[in-house]
TrEMBL record:
The keyword Metal-binding does not apply. The keyword Transmembrane helix does not apply. One of its GO terms (biological process) is carbohydrate metabolic process. Keywords: Signal. It comes from the Bacteria. Residues 1-19 form the signal peptide. This is Lipoprotein. One of its GO terms (molecular function) is hydrolase activity, hydrolyzing O-glycosyl compounds. Coiled coil: none annotated.
Length: 243
C-alpha cells in the first residue's frame, strides 16, 4: 500500500482569512522553515568489532552473553517527536500516520521511514524529545498495540531457544542535537528555502544485552530491557544518509 505524505502547506499554514490584522502581520514577518523527520534503526559492533548481518529481513548478531540471535520479526513504534529550541520553545512534529510501528527488518541499517514534519521558527535547536508507545498502525496483527515486538530464536552450541518479546510500555527519551551540524546545534536559517531533514535512529541489538536465553524472563524484565535499550540507543543525525 502506498502512503502519501500530507501537504504541509495545507495542514500547517494558518488560515489567513481568519487571522486578525496583527496576527497576519506576525505570521508574514516570522521566519520559519519546514523540518521533515524520518526514523530508522541501526546495529552496533560487538566486543570484537563485528556488526550485525542481514539474511533477507532477518537480523543476525551475537549478544554479549555469546548467544547467536536471529530476529525474524521486529517492530518499534515511535509515537511522537518534539523539536526543542535552545531557548526552550517547543514544536510538536505532526506524525503523518500516528503511532505507526516501524518494521525494522525492512528498514534497519539501510532504509528510512517518513515519520512527520513541522513548520518551526528560525533559530537553533538543542534537543529532540522522542516518545515510544503502543502502535495503532502496523502491518503485522501480532504487533498491533505493541511498543516493541520481537520474535526469533537464539542459538548457543546445541541449544536453540525460540522467543517472542512484546512490550506495551510508554517511554520518553531526550536526544541531544546541540552539536549535530559540524559541532553546532541543528538550525533553521532566516532564509530557509528548502526543508531540513532530521533522522531518528535506535539500536536493535542492545535489546538483548546481558540476556542469557536459558533464564526465564518476566514481563517486567522484558519491559526494563526494552526501556533501557531505547533510552540509551536512540540517536539523531541531520539529513537522511544512513550509510
Amino acid at each position: 500500500m502506498t502512503r502519501r505524505i500530507p501537504l504541509l502547506a495545507t495542514l500547517l499554514v494558518p488560515t489567513l482569512a481568519l487571522a486578525s490584522g496583527c496576527d497576519l502581520f506576525s505570521q508574514l514577518s516570522q521566519h520559519t522553515g519546514i523540518v521533515d523527520v524520518f526514523t530508522t534503526s541501526h546495529g552496533t559492533p560487538d566486543d570484537e568489532g563485528n556488526l550485525p548481518s542481514h539474511n533477507g529481513h532477518q537480523l543476525v548478531f551475537t549478544n554479549d552473553m555469546g548467544w547467536d540471535v536471529f530476529i525474524d520479526e521486529a517492530y518499534v513504534t515511535t509515537s511522537a517527536v518534539t523539536l526543542l529550541a535552545c531557548d526552550g520553545e517547543r514544536f510538536d512534529i505532526e506524525m503523518y500516520w500516528g503511532a505507526q510501528a516501524e518494521n525494522l527488518g525492512a528498514t534497519a541499517d539501510a532504509e528510512l521511514a517518513a515519520a512527520g514534519g513541522v513548520r518551526a521558527n528560525a533559530g537553533t535547536y538543542c534537543d529532540l524529545v522522542v516518545e515510544y508507545g503502543p502502535a495503532d498502525t502496523v502491518d503485522n496483527p501480532a504487533a498491533m498495540g505493541a511498543t516493541v515486538y520481537l520474535a526469533g530464536s537464539a542459538v548457543m552450541g546445541d541449544q536453540h531457544i525460540d522467543f517472542i518479546w512484546r512490550s506495551d510500555i510508554e517511554l520518553e527519551t531526550q536526544v541531544d542535537i546541540s552539536d549535530i551540524e559540524a559541532g553546532q546545534p541543528f538550525a533553521i536559517s532566516t532564509e530557509q528555502h528548502f526543508s531540513k531533514k532530521l533522522t531518528v535512529s535506535k539500536t536493535y541489538n542492545h535489546f538483548f544485552d546481558g540476556v542469557d536465553f536459558n533464564d526465564e524472563l518476566s514481563q517486567a524484565d522484558i519491559d526494563d530491557l526494552v526501556a533501557d535499550s531505547l533510552d540509551r540507543g536512540t540517536v539523531a543525525f541531520e539529513g537522511t544518509n544512513v550509510h
